[in-house]
């Protein structure tokens, strides 16, 4: 199939993540662009990505991007900070459709939000080791201080659906205490799974700390990219013919997926299928 044009209302926005985390981006895309079709791939056979090498995450990202393009996606939203940090810079230009990651919009929002100049970033081991947030924030404003910490236990807890659980709260407290003591006023949720813990994080950080959600900021960046296209304007009557859908492909069956998508994020799913990717 040839590359779909951004102006094609029937072509889906392709979105992917290692698991359910990218659905936080889908929920924000739904809010920002209610008329769009979305095709989501959750790489549930290989989640988590956060402890894997750049080479492996890049291979997975290529395989899934190839699948999305072959399914007619008009753009690829990499709804995964780990893949955004490790793979997007080296693969984005290989595709006939735009590829947008979550990292730059999140870093820009953090720079805008901070008043004290002290920003905290939490993410997977791979994202934090890449220093991608630190570099992007410092590129935007070299005077800012960035305290970044890897939180490898959070993705498994979220994939298990332990969103409001004392174990998750204890783990969060352990991870967040040192940076809270440093006096940060802004915390970047540098993993698309983490907005599912927003309430728990908020109750630990208190209301004085701004939480920057990479999902929300990525959706705004996608909306901006689609803006010149009049078919994305919700006042456009041609949209009455378009059918907003959410189709999901998982690379392995996942019990908790539907429950979290529908209960925690309020998403309604039109189809869900398992599709094998890679070897
Ligand atoms: N949700 C992803 C991210 O934003 C991936 C987490 C993982 O698979 O470790 O980094």
SSE map:
Elements: E1 13-17, H1 23-32, E2 38-42, H2 54-70, E3 75-78, H3 81-86, H4 88-91, E4 99-101, H5 103-113, E5 118-123, H6 125-130, H7 132-140, E6 145-150, H8 154-159, H9 166-181, E7 186-190, H10 198-205, E8 210-213, H11 214-226, E9 246-250, H12 255-264, E10 271-274
Parallel strand pairs: 1-2, 1-3, 2-9, 3-4, 5-6, 5-7, 7-8, 9-10
Helix pairs in contact: 1-11, 5-7, 5-11, 9-10
Describe the structure concisely.
With 279 residues, the chain is an alpha/beta fold.
Account of the 3D structure:
42% of the residues lie in helices and 17% in strands. It is an alpha/beta fold and 279 residues long. It folds into 2 domains: 4-100 and 217-274, Rossmann fold (3-Layer(aba) Sandwich); 104-215, 3-Layer(aba) Sandwich (Rossmann fold), CATH 3.40.50.1860. Strands 4-3-1-2-9-10 form a 6-stranded parallel β-sheet, sandwiched between helices. The longest helix is centred in the N-terminal third of the chain and has 17 residues, at 54-70. It is globular, with a radius of gyration of 18 Å.
Name the bound molecules.
D-glutamic acid
Q: What fraction, in percent, of the residue positions are helical?
A: 40-55%
Q: What sort of overall outline do the alpha carbons produce when their principal axes are compared?
A: globular
Rounded average pLDDT: 91
What's the CATH topology label of the largest domain?
Answer: Rossmann fold
List keywords for this structure.
279 residues; alpha/beta; four-stranded parallel beta sheet; 17% strand; binds D-glutamic acid
